[in-house]
């Protein structure tokens, strides 16, 4: 979500450009993917995995409609609108539909009220660069604490559309990155949005009360943005799924009944340290916290959960 990614990215030597007001600029970069029509192809690198994705996007009312098509591996499409996000995958002639909680995707990575991020990230303007044949301005979002990863974006000079985005750790090392290899801004085919059947509508996650357990305190800037119940593979009962976010970083918390003897907390992390996880028992529930966030953020959320 194959090593040796070769991107069509060429840095251009030059002086740091004079940035406008940081809050205004960040807001323009956040709004560009939703107010512009564009289509193109980008590469996504996550650890040792690289994928190529075709995207078609156009404004629709106060929101947008977009269609992302995976060009390698198992055929898969993601259809996004302001109201919902749907993932369609095909295997052995069977199409599987999954409704997603988050409708944001590259290059639409920043929240609607992006200026609020400046409470938790410092915005640093960078040099001019070149991505997919287009000039872009670099900007870096540097975390002010240890609870979030940083980001380096490159926004197209004329429109502020992000052409590249890199998630970096505290040492500035890339953890995940997206980059257009080709893009046309200002025009896009209509991204066909399918009509959902009654069966598909019934598969939407049910809203959860969100009061099964309680949290003493969240990391600074994080708030709960979703609470649903969903049926997970190989789980007999529906699992409660909460999502917390500061607008850029997302952390999931899964709650399910304890099915075995009490256990000590379990810590897990991906090989490159981008994805962290903690599992612990809270009362009669097993709580799993995971996300693409630093370990201190995952631990803070997991240890803040209390039984009612």
Automatic annotation (TrEMBL):
Leader sequence range is 1-18
Check the record and name the Gene3D superfamilies matching this protein.
Lipoprotein localisation LolA/LolB/LppX, MucB/RseB, C-terminal domain
Stretches assigned to the MucB/RseB N-terminal domain: 22-192
Please, which domain of life does this record's source organism belong to?
Answer: Bacteria
Annotated GO CC locations: outer membrane-bounded periplasmic space
Question: According to its UniProt record, where is this protein located?
Answer: Periplasm
- Give yes or no: UniProt keyword Secreted: no
- Record keywords, A-Z: Periplasm, Signal
Per the record's keyword annotation, is Secreted included, yes or no? no
Q: Which Pfam families match?
A: MucB_RseB (PF03888), MucB_RseB_C (PF17188)
Please cite one Gene Ontology biological process associated with this protein: regulation of polysaccharide biosynthetic process
Supply the InterPro entries for this chain: MucB/RseB_C (IPR033436), MucB/RseB_C_sf (IPR038484), MucB/RseB_N (IPR033434), MucB_RseB (IPR005588)
- Cite the MucB/RseB C-terminal domain residue spans from the record: 212-305
Q: Which family does it belong to?
A: Belongs to the RseB family.
The protein here is known as: MucB/RseB-like sigma(E) regulatory protein
């Amino acid at each position: 979500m194959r090593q040796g990614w070769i991107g069509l990215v060429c840095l251009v030597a030059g002086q740091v450009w004079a940035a406008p007001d940081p809050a205004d600029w960040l807001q323009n970069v956040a709004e560009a993917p939703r107010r512009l029509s564009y289509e193109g192809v980008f590469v996504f690198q996550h650890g040792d995995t690289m994928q190529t994705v075709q995207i078609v996007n156009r404004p629709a009312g106060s929101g947008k409609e977009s269609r992302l098509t995976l060009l390698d591996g198992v055929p898969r499409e993601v259809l996004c609108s302001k109201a919902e996000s749907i993932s369609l995958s095909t295997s052995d002639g069977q199409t599987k539909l999954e409704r997603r909680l988050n409708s944001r995707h590259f290059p639409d990575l920043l929240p609607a009220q992006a200026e609020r991020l400046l409470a938790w990230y410092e915005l640093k303007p960078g040099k001019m660069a070149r991505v997919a044949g287009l000039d872009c301005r670099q900007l870096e979002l540097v975390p002010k604490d240890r609870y979030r990863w940083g980001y380096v974006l490159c926004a197209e000079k004329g429109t502020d559309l992000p052409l590249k985005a890199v998630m970096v750790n505290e040492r500035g090392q890339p953890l995940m990155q997206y980059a257009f290899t080709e893009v046309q801004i200002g025009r896009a085919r209509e991204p066909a949005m399918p009509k959902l059947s009654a069966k598909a509508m019934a598969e939407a996650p049910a809203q959860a009360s969100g009061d099964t357990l309680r949290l003493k305190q969240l990391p600074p800037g994080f708030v709960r943005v979703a609470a649903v119940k969903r049926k997970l593979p190989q789980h007999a009962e529906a699992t409660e799924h909460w999502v917390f976010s500061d607008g850029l970083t997302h952390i999931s918390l899964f709650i399910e009944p304890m099915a075995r003897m009490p256990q000590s907390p379990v810590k897990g992390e991906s090989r490159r340290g981008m994805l962290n996880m903690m599992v612990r028992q809270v009362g009669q529930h097993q709580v799993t916290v995971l996300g693409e966030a630093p370990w201190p953020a995952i631990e803070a959320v997991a240890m803040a959960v209390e039984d009612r």
